[in-house]
């Protein structure tokens, strides 16, 4: 016999396990909030920009071919900026207690399409150190590129600076808690349906018919003797009171 599940049954299952779903979602949200606010270390980000462009005098004309050459060099510069040749010198200048590989993981280099501006972004637990490292990378690269590439076409466009109240880029507690809430609700709903699926107890006449494939001829209701005794005592006292009032 093929079993079918109605939307009403699904709704009743969710209603039956509503407290479980709420508890799981609340625990997931609270755990995410505690971890985000008190366990994870805030990470700050700072960026500087360099311009890949040969310095020109007033007599020099604008050269499209030179611009294209600068654009093509940006891909090479991106690799050089994150290379040990630059990062090792930055570590020495800033007296950083990390390897070039570890610093490489904190640095990202990007440029807009067809743009001669290169962005150097550094992430660090200390906002001031993030800005110092970004500026040091830019200045070191500008100094070293002349020797490495025999080209002097790099200028620092803007230095990395920190505001009065810098905000960390991660973790984002509100976002993390919202995600945890959604995941908690999904987990709670899934657990509710799993428990309902694993529950093979017979609760009503319909369950008996589905299990045995036979019609139910009769049902015995559950009798609570304490409630019946109280009801009988109340009825007796009521009849007694009525009898007394009639006799009087």
Question: Can you give the mean pLDDT?
Answer: 83
Task: Characterize the main sheet.
Answer: 4 strands, antiparallel
Dominant shape? elongated
Strand arrangement, major sheet: 2-3-1-4
- Radius of gyration (CA) equals 37 Å
Kindly report how far apart the N and C termini lie: 68 Å
Helical proportion, percent range: 55-70%
Count of helical segments?
Answer: 9
Computed structural class: alpha+beta
- Tally of extended strands? 4
* Percentage beta strand: 5-15%
Low-pLDDT segments, ≥5 res: 57-61
**Element-level helix/strand string:** HHEHHHEEHEHHH
Detail the topology: elements first, then pairings.
Layout: H1 7-16, H2 18-39, E1 44-52, H3 64-81, H4 84-94, H5 100-106, E2 107-111, E3 117-124, H6 127-149, E4 154-158, H7 173-198, H8 205-212, H9 225-247
Antiparallel strand pairs: 1-3, 1-4, 2-3
What does this structure look like?
There is one protein chain. With 248 residues, this protein is α+β, with helices and mostly antiparallel strands. Helices cover 60% and strands 11% of the residues. The chain has a 4-stranded antiparallel beta sheet. Helix 2 packs antiparallel against helix 7, helix 4 crosses helix 5 (100-106) and helix 4 crosses helix 6 (127-149). Mean pLDDT is 83; it is low at 57-61.
Quick overview:
The protein is 60% helix and 11% strand. With 248 residues, it is an alpha+beta fold. Its main location: membrane.
Could you name the key traits of this structure?
248 residues, alpha+beta, four-stranded antiparallel beta sheet, 60% helix, elongated
């Amino acid at each position: 016999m093929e079993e079918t599940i109605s939307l009403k049954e699904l709704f009743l299952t969710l209603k039956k396990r509503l407290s479980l779903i709420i508890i799981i979602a609340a625990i997931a949200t609270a755990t995410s909030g505690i971890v985000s606010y008190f366990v994870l270390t805030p990470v700050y980000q700072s960026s500087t920009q360099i311009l890949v462009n040969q310095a020109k005098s007033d007599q020099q004309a604008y050269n499209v071919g030179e611009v294209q050459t600068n654009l093509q060099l940006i891909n090479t510069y991106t690799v050089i900026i994150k290379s040990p040749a630059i990062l090792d010198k930055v570590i020495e200048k800033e007296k950083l207690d990390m390897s070039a590989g570890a610093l490489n993981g904190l640095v990202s280099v990007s440029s807009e399409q067809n743009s001669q501006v290169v962005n150097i972004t550094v992430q660090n637990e200390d906002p001031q150190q993030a800005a110092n490292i970004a500026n040091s990378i830019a200045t070191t690269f500008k100094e070293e590129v002349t020797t490495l590439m025999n080209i002097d076409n790099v200028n620092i466009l803007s230095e990395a600076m920190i505001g009065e109240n810098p905000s960390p880029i991660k973790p984002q507690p509100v976002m993390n808690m919202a995600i945890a809430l959604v995941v908690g609700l999904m987990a709670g709903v899934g657990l509710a349906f799993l428990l309902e699926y694993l529950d093979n107890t017979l609760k009503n006449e319909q369950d008996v018919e589905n299990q045995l494939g036979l019609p139910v001829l009769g049902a015995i209701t559950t009798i609570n003797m304490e409630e019946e005794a109280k009801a009988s005592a109340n009825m007796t006292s009521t009849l007694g009171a009525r009898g007394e009032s009639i006799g009087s």
